[in-house]
Alkaline/neutral invertase
Amino acid sequence: MDAPKESGLRNVSSVCSIPEMDDFDLTKLLDRPRLTIKRERSFDERSLSEMSLSRGLENLDVAYSPGGRSGFDTPASSTRNSFEPHPMIAEAWDSLRRSLVHFRGQPVGTIAAYDHASEEVLNYDQVFVRDFVPSALAFLMNGEPDIVKNFLLKTLQLQGWEKRIDRFKLGEGAMPASFKVLHDPERKTDTIVADFGESAIGRVAPVDSGFWWIILLRAYTKSTGDLTLAETPDCQKGMRLILTLCLSEGFDTFPTLLCADGCSMIDRRMGIYGYPIEIQALFFMALRCSLAMLKLDSEGKEFVERIMKRLHALSFHMRSYFWIDFQQLNDIYRYKTEEYSHTAVNKFNVIPDSIPDWVFDFMPTRGGYFVGNVSPARMDFRWFALGNCVAILSSLATPEQASAIMDLFEARWEELVGEMPIKICYPAIESHEWRIVTGCDPKNTRWSYHNGGSWPVLLWLLTAACIKTGRPQIARKAIELAESRLLKDGWPEYYDGKNGRYIGKQARKYQTWSIAGYLVAKMLLEDPSHLGMISLEDDRQLKPIIKRSSSWTC
């Protein structure tokens, strides 16, 4: 796990810009002022037509030439000390560094939390793949890429382990949910114990870990300009193994991924089984990141073909059937049922009477979002923060849809943000529905934890989405809310209550990704060029023709 050569980092410019919106001038469509940001396309945001197999080899040489650099070039920010930092920032960095985990003298990640007041450690002393992502981005933005490289390589090694739960063997490409480093001071040895779901609550394997690993590999490449890591045979194989799990053929009639409850950030039973928006958005983003990093050798060509076909189908499916706005809600409300033909309008046989009452009041005239889940005769109308923000960053959302999601944030600020950003989902489920959906889960009571709790870690995703859509004022307002309480409250994992007013009843203090999420949000706002690490530009080749009215035309 050798660190990248210092000279390689010096060759990367610290100046870059945010990708350009397509042909739409959204400022003319909206009545409120918007920040105008210069946008340019980067090498891996080019259209899929440019990645065709006939020209793929040529483009790969351009994208991955030794000593070259990525299109966004977001290395350590040269301007990070050019502004007056908030007093919380120094405290946050100290706390983040205290969470570092070392393996044989090298930092390989950060523990989930170091709440010394808590007697039950459980698995909060482990390095979680999804939890480490904001920490990794913070270190990359601060010019410290070595820990991220170490993490990527170490988790790649763990992927190669045999994974069994009882007598069943997991897929070869599965990434761990977490790992723990055990130090033996007498023998002076370090060993790693990984959890692929066999120790998790409900024994569910993390579907999102592999996607986050691919996304983080691209972020590392973008930040450092080190193209060699992604090109190594081990990383190429790791990506292909993850993709093999996701692109395998089965009985599915949809391009979305079928998942169990508890397979993502919401890792307890919350009724997200089926085709949850969080997994679909991460899947889409990981596919696009892989498309840019896979070599077009004999094995890579096959995967590029499969990825391109899946992206076209997935983008159409998500933008057509998961998207809801005022007009679409009205259309669903008027749906006929039991249609049997290829010309059916109500393709999933959604029963209008199943639409919950709260949706009609929640949906503004101007705004929209991707619903939580769509499957036969079932549409989960809940709003999920992570899935919608990743949809914006990956350009799964069209520019118009991304703008509508931001309109929803502004129109429903009290519901989605309240006194602490931001709600993991909205609304909470309660009473009889809570008993049925969660199995009477005492941790996921209404407006708590995954059931409508407020999670500070999501601040970085909101900030990135705001910057990409040209609305930094939304992020600034959310960050100011967080700054009023996070430090004095001891960096809680989550907040409870309809407005996010109370520290979560079982929330750990000094939660690492709450700390890192705040730091990443601040650095993104101060230097928007960092957005290139985690943002993909819209690809016109993926745009479906959606023949229905949308909220932004209202």
User: Anything to note?
Assistant: The CA atoms of residues 415 and 499 lie 7 Å apart. Residues 1-82, 544-554 have pLDDT under 50 and may be disordered. The chain has 20 helices and 13 strands. The radius of gyration is 22 Å.
